[in-house]
Design brief:
This protein is α/β, with parallel strands linked by helices. The chain has two domains: about 280 residues, Aldehyde Dehydrogenase, Chain A, domain 1; about 190 residues, 3-Layer(aba) Sandwich (Aldehyde Dehydrogenase, Chain A, domain 2), CATH 3.40.309. It is built from 16 helices and 20 strands. It has a seven-stranded mixed beta sheet with strand order 14-15-16-13-12-17-18, with helices on both faces. Strands 9-8-7-10-11-19 form a six-stranded mixed beta sheet, with helices on both faces. β8, α7 and β9 form a beta-alpha-beta unit. α4 packs across α5. It is globular and about 70 Å long. The model has no long low-confidence stretch (mean pLDDT about 95). Bound molecules: adenosine-5'-diphosphate (ADP). The site of adenosine-5'-diphosphate has 17 residues, from α8 and α9. Adenosine-5'-diphosphate binds next to α8 and α9.
Length: about 500
């Protein structure tokens, strides 16, 4: 870690961080009923950033009442769609107007490099609100071709009160993936940000009030999984739960949601294969593989953590990838020259470094990295490339959620597809080749919700995102999120 120049924190960010961090319920900021707070830590310095009100079941109950009231009153759900759209456009504009501040706040709370916050998280969050603002006036029912004495049609209606539980890896972006489509369809929400990164969601709450969103439409309840999170998943007054996070917690949510048969959508873990054929443009494939696995310190559910390379190019490719990884600058995430910031938490640091030991013990070879990357404070881990990995090792099967690439050799196309699909997950996959037929054929064979060809990690609010197998179900983004947040009603009229 090189000595970084001191970075100035935007005074508005400091002021926001210092102000009391409360719960947003029914349009008002309030402390938790228990009076409890928890600390959110800057993972680059290990210092306490802020004390945040800690919601638990009692606060969730209060928020459900406020959300239900807002929903039934219809101030949002029954608002003229063109007017509702205006609110979403306004939220997008406010995110953009405050982009620099939000980017710093995200980096302070999560540790991701400021260039990523500035160029990915914050603009994509604004774009998601803008995209769904466009949908508000285009959510149609259908006229059914019924018998001549009947007029039959469908109405597409909001589901109601949605509980939305999000992770810490893309805090504001995940909040926008959840809130924008839910609000577009006329739902109301109780959003629980991750305990590691509650700050940008709270700031978004302020911006939503500034946009004039009616009270109770969006409630924001920071807190822990077993407290606020499980209370949301189980609450009988919540109609739908949308969750992004680990597969283990996804299972818990499903169980808890079964009490009142909530609608459930889950976006869970991954161990995505990134398959490189020897005819690919090797330079772009190496950069693609690098970003695929090390963006956001590898804390990405669709990260390309299993890099498959055909035997004859394996050594050359892993050398190239390791070289690029070694050159990534680790340091103060607020510094614009930094490419690798700290992991989000001590817990995550311990988990990831334990996998570095596991990989070694399993017989994989560390080509680069393989150890902590900080000097003193901060949860830094060096970008790590393991070679000589086989697909049955734990480092190839379990989601590490850190900057760790497992490179695996394959014989031919069939072998690549077989090994690529030989995983319990199915969130994403990529294939690199100049052979157009092979690209499309392999894309069809890979069991994953997203397949990238000659690129990695591209996301767009227009394109659906979600998993096969134990990576979850339901698709976020695109028109598919409209399905998640609406009910269909059939109406029969006797003529
Ligand atoms: P990670 O392992 O990456 O931290 P988690 O799946 O544990 O991801 O957490 C994702 C989100 O789910 C967070 O907001 C967390 O507080 C929440 N959460 C954790 N456990 C539970 C639970 N049992 N019920 C509901 N939400 C939970």
């Amino acid at each position: 870690m090189s000595a970084a120049p001191a970075v100035t924190i935007n005074p508005r960010v400091s002021e926001f961080v210092k102000s009391p961090k409360l719960l947003l319920i029914g349009g008002k900021w309030m402390p938790a009923k228990s009076g409890r707070t928890f600390e959110t830590i800057n993972p680059a310095t290990e210092e306490v950033l802020a004390n945040v009100a800690e919601a638990d079941a009692a606060d969730v109950d209060e928020a459900v009442k406020a959300a239900r009231r807002a929903f039934e009153e219809g101030k949002w759900s029954a608002m003229r769609p063109a007017d509702r759209a205006r609110f979403l456009f306004k939220i997008a504009e406010l995110i953009e107007a405050n982009a620099a501040e939000l980017a710093q706040l995200e980096t302070l709370d999560n540790g991701k490099a400021i260039n990523e916050s500035k160029n990915i998280d914050i603009p994509m969050a604004a774009e998601t609100f803008r995209y769904y603002a466009g949908w508000v006036t285009k959510i149609y029912g259908e006229t059914n071709p019924s018998s001549p004495d009947m007029f039959s049609y469908t109405l597409r209606e909001p589901v109601g009160v949605c509980g939305q539980i999000i992770p810490w890896n893309f805090p504001l972006l995940m909040a926008s993936w959840k809130l924008a489509p839910a609000l577009a369809c006329g739902n109301v929400s109780i959003l629980k940000p991750a305990e590691q990164t509650p700050l940008t969601a709270l700031r978004l709450g302020e911006l939503m009030l500034e946009a004039g969103l009616p009270e109770g439409v969006v409630n924001i309840l920071p807190g822990f999984g077993p407290g606020a999170g499980s209370a949301i998943a189980a609450h009988p007054g919540i109609d739908k739960v949308a969750f992004t996070g680990s597969t283990e917690v996804g299972r818990e949510i499903m169980k808890a949601a079964s009490g009142n048969l909530k609608r459930v959508s889950l976006e869970l873990g991954g161990k995505s294969p990134n398959i490189i054929f020897p005819d690919a443009d090797m330079k772009s494939a190496a950069f693609g593989a690098l970003m695929g696995v090390f963006l956001n310190q590898g804390q990405v559910c669709c990260a390309g953590t299993r890099v498959f390379v055909q035997q004859e190019k394996y050594d050359q490719f892993t050398d190239q990838l390791s070289q690029l990884a070694q050159n990534m600058k680790i340091g103060d995430p607020l510094d614009t020259s930094t490419r690798v910031g700290p992991l989000v938490s001590k817990e995550q640091f311990d988990r990831v470094t334990s996998y570095l030991d596991i990989g070694r013990k399993e017989g994989a070879k560390v080509k680069t990295g393989g150890e902590a990357g900080g000097q003193g404070k901060g949860y830094f881990v060096k970008p790590t490339v393991f070679a000589d990995v086989n697909n049955s090792m734990r480092i190839a099967r379990e989601e590490i959620f850190g900057p760790v690439a497992a490179t695996i050799a394959f014989k031919d196309e069939n072998d690549a597809v077989f090994q690529g699909n030989d995983t319990t997950y199915g969130l994403a996959a990529a294939v690199w080749t100049r052979d157009i037929s092979r690209a499309h054929a392999v894309a069809r064979k890979l069991k994953a919700g997203t397949v990238w060809v000659n690129c990695y990690g591209m996301l767009d609010p227009i394109s659906p995102f979600g998993g096969y197998k134990q990576s979850g179900f339901g698709r976020e983004l695109g028109k598919y999120a409209i399905e998640l947040y609406t009910e269909i009603k059939s109406v029969f009229v006797k003529l």
